[in-house]
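Show me a record, fold above all:
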Amino acid sequence: MRDVITFVMKKVVETSASFGDLDSAFVEFNSKFSAEASKDGFSLSKLQGEINASLQEWEVEFNLNINPITPEDIIKNLVSHYVVDRNLNKEIDIKYLGQGLQRHLIYTLLKLSSNYAEKRVYEKKEFMPELNLILFEEPEAFLHPGQQESLNNSLKLLSASEVQQVIVSTHSPFFLSKNIDDIPTLVRLKRELGITRVFQVSRETRDKVLVENNELAQLLKSKLGDPLVDEPVKKRIKDILGDTDDDIRMEEESIRYLLWLDSERCCAFFADIVLICEGATEKALLDYLMKNKWDDLQEKRVYVLDALGKFNIHRYMNLFKELGVKHSVLADGDENQGVQELINQFIGLQRNKYTQSLDFFDNNIEAFLGINAPRRDRPDKKPLNVIWHYTTGKISDDKISALKNKVQNLL
């Protein structure tokens, strides 16, 4: 708290006309004080003379200066802060207030500090002696989501200056999601067997990942000119690819993570292992079972991620590889025919050192569980459909046990 107040108050004091008057007055005081003597004959010059008389044989001279008052002196020694409880009409120590209010006050001061920061333009190679390094631990603590977002915006504004850097540690997927637009600024720490490893995606690595993300589309596109590929398969490939050209497709790759890695999916970065599923149906059922039935799996700190379709699974695998996120994949095999065979094979080839395991339902999760799927034109009904079947006892215990075994093997 004190450091933030000091940071804000420095600008206030430095730009104050009153401080200018005080500085001028102090120069005059210093000049008079150095020469004048008290009625008892004591003076600064006399004291220096007495000291130097004893130092003559050393051939040195000892002098005393009265230093000018700096803004830091005023802030450190003369400025204090307090809180008034308007209901009690009395001053109270801020330590007796709730952590939420204390955090809110700190982030308000930080937000204001971006307006009070020194505005200077430096040459590229010029040393920046006034660099301010702001370390903020768990900024989300005790704050509502709206306050977290406001604080995050203020910290971004504060870090925009070339003479300020902000480093934040957080366990908040909400806070993380608000910065996912610039993945290279994110650093993930993972401690295993007493060793903490650091993972960060450089801008060059990010660009490489985006190219890798486009490889499935390029693979499917190459099949359009293959005489060995059946026409129905080519038609399905065209439906998947659409009429987007390669340049636009790469531009789209650069914003997919921004759109998908919201505060829900950012939970993946804090899990011990991520189970990447094809869609919302698998996530809905597995989350429900882990919460209400599979207590032993809760302890594994698993996050079930909805990949928004099989065509996107490799995109998460590529990113998790660079950030050291352990993951497994569970997807529909779709009978491993036609274009689905190509996609299944491609996903299998995307294994990396952080991929724990891969598995496919022979067809889909509904067929695996022995229930009917909703009409193909109502995919939004799929999660509701599978949860309804489970909660109304229409899925046998044997099927649920088989599903649990499949998930355990993946973990």
Notes: The chain has a mean pLDDT of 86. The chain has three domains: 1-78, 82-200, 204-410. The first helix runs from residue 2 to 14. The domain at 82-200 is CATH 3.40.50.300 (Rossmann fold).
